[in-house]
Specification:
Elements (H helix, E strand, L loop, with lengths): L13 H11 L1 H21 L5 E13 L7 E17 L3 H67 L5 H36 L19 H11 L1 H21 L5 E12 L11 E12 L7 H67 L5 H35 L5 H4 L8 H8 L6 H10 L34 H4 L11 E2 L5 E2 L10
Antiparallel strand pairs: 1-2, 2-3, 3-4, 5-6
Helix pairs in contact: 1-3, 2-3, 2-10, 3-4, 3-6, 3-8, 5-7, 6-7, 7-8
Length: about 525
């Protein structure tokens, strides 16, 4: 007889969730394909240096029969092969290649920014599910305690220990707890749906949160790291480089373009025939075409001014991106510091509130406290527990946000077993497809006398002289992992602090028998 054992399912880790999102999240997949499109932009821009060959064939059949005359007919053919090889574009193509390259590199930073945001979102929903599961359990404990409190007061009213007012107070507090519990469960359902949206499957049993990467020792180090690595700032820099190259390409519109052209023509007239006869000829044409704009009614100069204005706007955009980056670093830094304090002191608040509630309950049964005092103590305990759970979540999410602001958050940092997507691999694959040595020669010639893709850069306009935000001080000490993962004592198991320092249950926790 076979022994049937239940299948066991291992708990999911944060690394598992990030790996799943990294592979299949639609936003991530979409951005990878967009980057492949940007790679092709470089290939297309550079291809303008190479030759183009086109072929065209035209066939015509003529049937001619005048009245009273023998009919004649013929089939004519004309085939043309055309070759065009740019020799010099005054730097127009040079600028376009530089612009496409900057767009491609900026796209890589956009891909990195998307990955960073996906990782942040997964961390938020993963930690959010753990947080909301714990909050639901706290709410459930709250309802159980208040149900017991109501039953106890109904029983005590029979003996004259309390009044109807005490019973009504307990019932009102229980009703409020049941409403809160419904909202907590709804919040959990929403968070689980967000998990599915980000990760691609519903959450099962989740492992505790792992340790994230190390942070910069000081906020000045964080500022320096962000200026080097923040993807949003680097996107702004590549956007400016792209518009600078476009401005150089616009200036090239004032200069001449030179191209080599060749054409081979084969003509077969077909010949009108009664019995037969053909006539054909071949023709080869070689030439050089030089084009020099003379007057454009102000179009070219307007295009140059437009390109320069857009480049200046993008230079100012670097300053804007830098300021936003510095603000993000500061916000994440000070938020993390305050949340760390909230966890450390919040645990002390929970411990004290738990002992106070246990003491209140015991003193109420001994006639030393009123019902409302005990209810308030229980409410303070539950509020402290909910706040602590939220603070733990905030610490973890703020830690991830600070890593992201400095450009140090990545999927591989947490899920080191994933296969990292390398955008460089696709670019290497397509970079030289269709390449000919003529492109290299034309690119070299095009540098002669042409404007460089890097136009005049204004460090002041780009915010080089804008200082860092004021130093808010060092981070508060990080809570230990044991404190971050310490299970909360259920409200129903709250214990007194006895004079000898030990804890214990109230001897009158149950209804006194009469």
């Amino acid at each position: 007889m076979a022994l049937c054992l239940p299948a066991t399912t291992s708990a999911e880790t944060l690394a598992d969730a990030i790996a799943s999102a990294y592979d299949r999240n639609p936003t991530m997949v979409q951005e990878r394909y967009l980057q492949k499109a940007r790679d092709e932009g470089v290939v297309q821009a550079r291809s303008q240096y190479g030759p183009t060959v086109t072929a065209q064939t035209q066939l015509e059949h003529t049937h001619f029969q005048p009245l009273g005359v023998l009919q004649t007919e013929g089939t004519g053919q004309e085939s043309v092969i055309t070759l065009n090889q740019p020799i010099y574009t005054s730097g127009r193509v040079r600028g376009q290649v530089a612009a496409a390259t900057a767009a491609m590199k900026g796209g890589r930073e956009q891909l990195r920014l998307t990955e960073e945001q996906i990782v942040q979102d997964v961390i938020q929903v993963y930690a959010g599910v753990l947080r909301d599961e714990e909050r639901v359990e706290i709410g459930r404990e709250n309802v159980i305690v208040l149900q017991g409190q109501l039953k106890q007061n109904i029983k005590r009213k029979q003996y004259g220990d309390v009044t109807q007012t005490d019973v009504d107070q307990s019932d009102a507090r229980l009703a409020a707890a049941e409403i809160q519990q419904a909202q907590l469960e709804a919040n959990l359902a929403v968070t689980r749906a967000q998990y599915l949206q980000m990760v691609g499957h519903n959450p099962g049993k989740l492992e505790p949160l792992p340790q994230l990467g190390a942070l910069p020792p000081t906020i000045d180090d964080a500022f320096d790291l962000a200026e080097q690595n923040n993807p949003s700032l680097r996107i702004a820099q590549y956007t400016e480089a792209q518009s600078s190259a476009n401005a150089a390409s616009a200036r090239a519109g004032q200069g001449p373009t030179v191209s080599l052209t060749g054409q081979g023509v084969y003509t077969n007239a077909g010949g009108f025939r009664v019995i037969g006869g053909q006539s054909s000829q071949r023709e080869t044409v070689l030439g050089v075409t030089i084009t020099q704009p003379i007057f454009s009614s102000g179009l070219i100069h307007s295009q140059i001014r437009e390109a320069d204005a857009r480049n200046h706007a993008d230079q100012a955009g670097i300053d804007g991106a830098r300021r936003s980056t510095m603000e993000s670093v500061t916000n994440a830094w000070v938020s993390l510091s305050s949340y760390r304090v909230a966890v450390t002191t919040g645990q002390r608040q929970v411990d004290s509130a738990q002992a106070a509630f246990a003491g209140m309950g015991c003193e109420e049964l001994n006639g030393l406290r009123s019902t409302i005092e005990t209810l308030n103590a229980e409410e303070e305990l539950q509020s402290a527990q909910l706040s602590l759970v939220q603070s733990r979540y905030n610490v973890y999410v703020a830690h991830a946000a600070l890593l992201a602001a400095t450009g140090e958050l990545s999927a591989q940092q947490i899920a080191d077993n994933i296969t990292v997507y390398d955008p460089e691999a696709n670019f290497k694959h397509v970079r030289y497809l269709g390449f000919t040595p003529l492109q290299l020669a034309a690119a070299g010639v095009d540098r002669i006398g042409s404007a460089p893709p890097r136009s005049k850069f204004s460090p002041d306009l780009a915010g080089a002289n804008v200082p860092h935000p004021e130093n808010p001080g060092a981070l508060a000490p990080a809570p230990s992992r044991a404190l971050m993962n310490k299970p909360l004592t259920p409200i129903t198991k709250s214990q007194l602090r006895l004079p000898n320092g030990e804890t214990g249950r109230c001897p009158l926790n149950d209804i006194r028998s009469r």
